[in-house]
Write a structure and sequence with these properties.
Number of strands: 8
Strand content: 25-35%
Helix content: 40-55%
Order of helices and strands: HHEHEHEEHEEHHEHHE
Structural class: alpha/beta
Radius of gyration: 18 Å
Number of helices: 9
Bound molecules: S-adenosylmethionine
Distance between the termini: 38 Å
CATH architecture of one domain: 3-Layer(aba) Sandwich
CATH class of one domain: Alpha Beta
Length: about 230
């Protein structure tokens, strides 16, 4: 399967993804001079963009290689290797918390949301963002196999349905005033193929999709769940 960072880079460059990140920054509230944390920051793009908007932006990721890339790409950000379930931050020390395409990777997303609440000051905003791995729509000549491949990918993840649970996770952790939005990313070019290579390495199925990409017939839609709430 293709490398995670390469796929993230390809998806991040799409106008849809640019707009979605901007919306997530808006939902964090005032940024200038405020400290915000991006948990599971990956290559650090959101941290860099938040720093450009005047925030003291801190990125935390479990993967030291991601943090090394992030430090190199986004020198205005602060980056630390760390666990979203045990953030290297003092209680009440941040006014914004963000986790983008991260909670599905955690065995217990509620722990990360409790940790978000711990590090946020009263009145601070948490923004959770990501796909639900059972709601990925792919056009294919073989819908049955496609359904099976999407389900198999979902079943391989610790928390594939985190996206549909964001609102309840935040409410259960004591957050208030949730705002729920769903923005659907539609991929009809080679980025779609890169996304599909993260879902399966089943060669004959991928060959059909590659032919669709070649003939401008590939179609992948991914609803992205975005929920913001107040500490
Ligand atoms: C799909 S990537 C998303 C990266 C970034 N948020 C973005 O939107 O481009 C998920 C990231 O979460 C990180 N991650 C997974 N489990 C984590 C944990 N327990 N604590 C912190 N980061 C974690 C991975 O290393 C990876 O960089």
């Amino acid at each position: 399967m293709s490398s995670l960072l390469a796929v993230l880079d390809a998806v991040d460059a799409q106008p849809f993804a640019v707009g979605l990140r901007l919306r997530s920054y808006e939902l964090l509230g005032e940024l200038t001079g405020r400290t915000v944390v991006d948990a599971g920051c990956g290559g650090g793009r959101a941290v860099g963009e938040l720093a450009e908007r005047g925030a003291r932006a801190v990125g935390v990721d479990l993967d030291p290689e991601m943090i090394a890339v992030a430090r190199q790409r986004w020198p205005a950000g602060e980056f630390q290797v760390g666990d979203a379930c045990e953030l290297p931050l003092h209680s009440g020390s941040v006014s914004g918390y963000r986790a983008d395409k991260v909670l599905h990777a955690l065995a217990d997303p509620a722990r990360a949301v409790a940790e978000a609440r711990r590090v946020l000051a009263p009145g601070g905003r948490a923004v959770l963002l990501g796909q639900d791995w059972d709601t990925i729509v792919i056009d294919s000549d073989d819908p049955r196999t496609t359904r099976g491949l999407v389900q198999a990918k979902a079943d391989s993840l610790p928390s594939p349905h985190a996206g549909r649970k964001y609102r309840n996770l935040l409410l259960d952790a004591g957050f208030t005033d949730p705002v729920v939005e769903v923005h659907t990313g539609v991929f009809t070019d080679d980025t779609a193929l890169a996304v599909l290579h993260r879902i399966t390495d089943e060669q004959s199925w991928l060959a059909e999709q590659a032919e669709r990409a070649r003939t401008n017939r590939i179609f992948v839609a991914v609803p992205m769940f975005l929920v913001a709430a107040r500490r």
